[in-house]
Amino acid sequence: MDWASAAYTAAALVCAAAATVVALGHIYRHLLHYAEPVYQRFIVRIIFMVPVYSVMSFLSLIFPDSAIYFNSIREIYDAWVIYNFLSLCLAWVGGPGAVVTSLTGRSLRPSWFLMTCCFPAIPLDGCGVLVFLAAKSRYIKNAEKAADLQNFVLCVEMLIAAIGHLFAFPYKEYAGNHDFTYPFAYSIAV
Questions:
Q1: CA distance 110 to 117
Q2: What are the extents of the domains in the chain?
């Protein structure tokens, strides 16, 4: 392993470890202040995406021969996160019935602003686009290098996502409602 490869792997490790620590701390605080189970169960599952992605991407980076297994775990959890995000959105708006009622008779019209009139759907996977551009510019010469770059970028991206989740899903919203830090102490006191 050359110096550049070791630095590349070390940077991925630092980002993956930092992302995992931030996300697990955030999950812990949500569980410590578990006041709204209807919402927080989905939030915790969404936040847990960061450790799963970080660890699986790092393992894929250092064990490329076993990457198919790590990537499969990551993809399965991705589907689970999408389901939980949709469930959270539905819970926030009052459930599926409220959505059906509010959308009855409405339609999404073609719009230049929303790009729904002329353009095909564009995947918003930042890593896929980066790898595609790197391959087109001949920076990446084979599929193994492309997979390494994607796994490295995911490790870095998960650190950014972990920090973003702190703002998107703040535990402090639930800390003031009911503090379930010591539920047994409350039942003994009553």
A1: 5
A2: 11-95+125-179
